[in-house]
Amino acid sequence: MPVVIRRARPEDAATVAVFALKLFAQHREYDPERFADLSNAAGAEAYYGSRMSSPTAAVFVAEAENKVVGFAYLEYQAVNYPELLENAGWLHDLYVDEAARGTGAGKALIKAAKDAAKTFGADKLVLMVAAKNEHARDFFSRTGLRETMVEMTIDLR
Prior knowledge:
Blueprint: E1 3-7, H1 13-30, H2 41-51, E2 57-64, E3 67-80, E4 85-96, H3 105-120, E5 124-127, H4 134-142
Parallel strand pairs: 4-5
Antiparallel strand pairs: 1-2, 2-3, 3-4
């Protein structure tokens, strides 16, 4: 099944939101104390829809057989003091539907994110991955990313 990557359009926002909610739920399963329950479809649709028209962001969708099977969302950050970053493309989200995994959609979305980050002026692409998401950590390593930080948290309730 050939995969096509393209910029998301406003009419894709609802589908992107469905995938984002799956990604959110996955994170909540890993650690419900760390990851907030943002399972609000209307909120996710509005958020990702707004990022589609931002001059410093890109939302991509992966299509297979004329059906959206995944998405990626990144933002360009010229300077990010808390993260000690300059000229970075921050890949906030990448999700591929389970039925489409192994088709190359994830690799193609990473390539699109890298290309967009370069277009924005970034000289690096960074992302965070849940510590318990071994599959994603392995996937990102195989696509050339390397670990640079370890997030730690403590419950204050």
